[in-house]
Amino acid sequence: MTAFRAFVAKEFRETRKTWRLWVVPGVLVFLGLTSPVLAAVTPALLRATAGQSPGVVIEVPTPVARDAYVQFLGDLMQIVLLVVIITTGAAVAAERRAGTDVLMLTKPLTRDAFILAKTVSGVMLLAVATAIGAAVCVVGTVLLFDASHVAAFAASVGLWLALATMFTALMVLLSAATLRQGSAAGAGVTVWVALFAMTAFPLLRDHSPAGLMAAGDELLMGRDVALAWPLGTTLAIAALCVAGAVAVFRRKEL
Fold first, then answer.
1. If residue 239 lies in a helix (H) or strand (E), which one and from where to where?
2. Domain boundaries in the chain?
3. E strands of 168-210, at which residues?
4. For 208, which of 40, 62, 134, 237 is 20 to 30 Å away at the CA?
């Protein structure tokens, strides 16, 4: 356990001192800052654009707090998940290419602990960064609009974090299975696209992680959402991916 904690601490030190700090955390904070602003100014920009074209009339509803939160959640699903997929694709593969995994595993660190530490550190970083980004978004939204929908927004962000945790575990598995970050990232993007496609089919959506992709907007609209199946399958797949990564890495030659 001491070696496990030391390796997790090493991961966080690397994140703090390298480009990793400016990728997922940086993107989340940026989106938290810009989402309320975009929600507030987009209608004015559309009206200004229409004013330059005689005869063109664009009816744009007055922006509300919900629009800022919907903007942030959409960016989480589209931008941040892709960033997670691409960056986490190197979680194990980069260590193996550099040969640092051999150094780590000659210490009192087991292969299982190596994989678990990679997963735990990735999820912890994502959770902290998401909380900060969401908090920034809430502050900006309250200042520009009002304090409505905060609870629904927090619940929606929590559901997204469950989905992002699944993708983190999936990418650790794919990274453990290949030495190439590009191959792992490509497979992860394929899964991401497949889940988006599944949202168009109610039976698949309501019984798979695809259901979490639309659940946030539904919660913000005040609608009832069945979450048992989507959330349960998401967490189950995450656990299976971690177990699979452990099994795959045990069989890899260092």
1. helix 228-250
2. 2-250
3. none
4. 134
